[in-house]
Design goal:
Layout: E1 7-10, H1 21-28, E2 32-35, H2 44-50, E3 56-59, H3 66-71, E4 77-80, H4 90-95, E5 100-101, H5 108-123, H6 126-134, E6 150-154, H7 158-170, E7 175-179, H8 185-191, E8 194-195, H9 198-204, E9 207-210, H10 224-229, E10 235-238, H11 247-256, E11 261-264, E12 282-284, H12 293-312, H13 322-334
Parallel strand pairs: 1-2, 1-3, 3-4, 4-5, 6-7, 6-9, 7-8, 9-10, 10-11, 11-12
Length: 335
């Protein structure tokens, strides 16, 4: 009997749209694959039900928990489309000898551009103007220009640095504040970014934009206290991870007029149907930061290439670095 071909489960959706490059690679390699049949982010039990006969996984942000990994008796690789690792139990994967790969660089340009777009949309009231016009009302909103304002970046990694670079190039009079656990002083000197503590950033910025990974330390990082420090004319933007922001505290501040507005691309529960959707001074998008054709295609292609390397028995080149496992061990010890 012929050897069974490796089976690939693609959980992230959409996948292969509009560019089929990654799917073409799988087909050319002769690998069997199935794309998430539910069409949204999978829940833990749904993933348990799907993963039993899977050899290789091209993963999104669904919960790849110890229970899921225990059910994956044949699994040889978890290849993440994207950078976030908060959804993967790295220690459970390592205990089973399952390597985890990711694509940390490919999404950054698209996420940074969406962030800048959200800033401009908030400042110029683009979403409410569109709604008013569709309702037959000709409302000409007075907005503000980004040039000359103060932007505060919480986190200055791959995305945060790109946002700073774009702002500096296009809006040279903008003051850029940043807070990061490991400030890049050379980058700060080159771009004119000022490294400050969190309180100074929240109190001084006209726009606060979040660019930190989700960890136990950043879960609920931005709550009522931080929001209370912000100017009533300020905006909050989150294109990082939903649970970084206390959504209830944010909604309360927006309702009370203690904050002018917010834009969120990520949420604690997705798809999102929470209280922020009822507020006119919030701009909401569907976790689409990485969803530009080129960046998405690159992410899918890189994750797929890693799957093919594993299927061939070749060395993997996009493995999650060891320090991520060390952090996971520290989190486990603290819990």
């Amino acid at each position: 009997m012929a050897d069974r071909r490796p089976r690939v489960l693609i959980t992230t959706v959409p996948f292969g749209q509009p560019r089929r490059d990654a799917l073409d690679r799988l087909e050319a390699e002769g690998l069997d694959y199935v794309i998430n049949p539910i069409g949204r982010r999978l829940r833990e039990q749904e993933l348990v039900d799907l993963i039993g006969d899977v050899d290789l996984m091209i993963a999104g942000t669904e919960p790849i928990t110890a229970r899921v990994i225990a059910a994956a008796s044949r699994l040889r690789l978890i290849s993440r489309v994207g950078i976030g690792l908060d959804s993967v139990d790295l220690l459970a994967a390592r205990a089973r000898g399952i390597p985890v790969s990711y694509t940390p660089d490919a999404p950054a340009p698209a996420v940074a551009e969406l962030t800048l777009g959200l800033m401009l949309a908030l400042l110029r009231h683009i979403a409410p103007a569109d709604r008013q016009l569709r309702q037959g009302r000709w409302q000409r909103y007075m907005g503000r220009r980004l040039d000359g304002l103060t932007v505060g970046l919480v986190g200055a990694g791959r995305v945060g640095r790109r946002v700073a670079t774009m702002i500096r190039a296009a809006f040279p009079s903008t003051t850029i504040l940043a807070h990061d656990l490991a400030p890049d002083t050379a980058f700060g000197r080159a771009t004119g970014v000022r490294w400050v503590d969190r309180d100074t950033l929240f109190a001084g910025a006209d726009i606060v934009s979040l660019h930190v990974p989700l960890t136990p330390q950043t879960r609920g990082l931005v709550g009522a206290r931080d929001i209370a420090l912000m100017k009533p004319t300020a905006f909050l933007i989150n294109t990082a991870r939903g649970t970084i922001v206390d959504e209830h505290a944010l909604a309360a501040a927006l309702r009370a007029g203690r904050l002018q507005g917010a834009a969120l691309d990520v949420f604690e529960d997705e798809p999102y149907a929470g209280e922020l959707a009822s507020l006119d001074n919030v701009l909401l998008t569907c976790h689409m930061g990485s969803m530009s054709e080129d960046c998405r295609a690159a992410m899918e292609y890189e994750a797929t290439d890693e799957v093919i390397r594993c299927a061939r028995g070749e060395p993997l080149i996009r493995l999650v670095p060891e320090d991520e496992y060390a952090l996971a061990e520290l989190r486990q010890a603290a819990s």
